[in-house]
Amino acid sequence: MEPMYLSIQQKETGKQIKKLLTENGYTVKDVQSAMGFENPQAIYKWISGRSLPSLDNFVILSRLLHTSIEDILVVAGDIVRSIGKFLNYRFNDKSFAR
Fold first, then answer.
1. Which of 7, 12, 10 is nearest to 53 (CA)?
2. For residues 34 and 89, which has the higher predicted lDDT (pLDDT)?
3. In this predicted structure, what is the pLDDT of residue 47?
4. Angstrom distance (rounded) from CA 12 to CA 21
5. If you classify domain 10-76 with CATH, what class do you get?
6. Which residue has the higher pLDDT, 69 or 93?
7. Higher pLDDT pick, 22 / 87
8. SS3 8
9. SS3 for 88?
């Protein structure tokens, strides 16, 4: 199987978070409150693309924004082609049919 090379695009993910917040009518202050943060710096870092939320915070964001984590993340890489090759390889592999 060929390895998959993917990369989370931090700046683009930040833009996506900002877009989804706007579409859902949330402010940074709203997210800060929902996450129980004392200050909004972490959220501003996410939006600017200087950092990414932790996995726990991605889950909270996805619920707050009524979407999946995958819809928040912007990923670069040829995942469709890689998964297709993997599935084709596995289904044509005689040992897989056991």
1. 10
2. 34
3. 98
4. 14
5. mainly alpha
6. 69
7. 22
8. strand
9. helix
**In the chain, domain spans:** 10-76
DSSP code per residue over 28-81: HHHHHHHHT-SSSHHHHHHHHTS----HHHHHHHHHHTTS-HHHH--EES-HHH
Instruction: Collect all residues with Cβ–Cβ distance below 8 Å to 75 and sequence separation of at least 6.
Output: 6, 7, 8, 9
How confident is the model at residue 1, as a pLDDT? 77
Q: What is the helix (H) or strand (E) element at residue 18, kind and residue range?
A: helix 10-23
Residue 5: Cβ within 10 Å count: 10
Q: Per-residue pLDDT for 46 more than 60?
A: yes
- Give the whole-angstrom CA distance, residue 15 versus residue 13: 5
Q: Token pair for residue 83? A: 């998964």
Query: Any idea what DSSP says for residue 7?
Result: E
Query: Is pLDDT of 88 > 80?
Result: no
What is the rounded CA–CA span in Å between residue 54 and residue 35?
A: 12
Identify the pLDDT of residue 2.
78
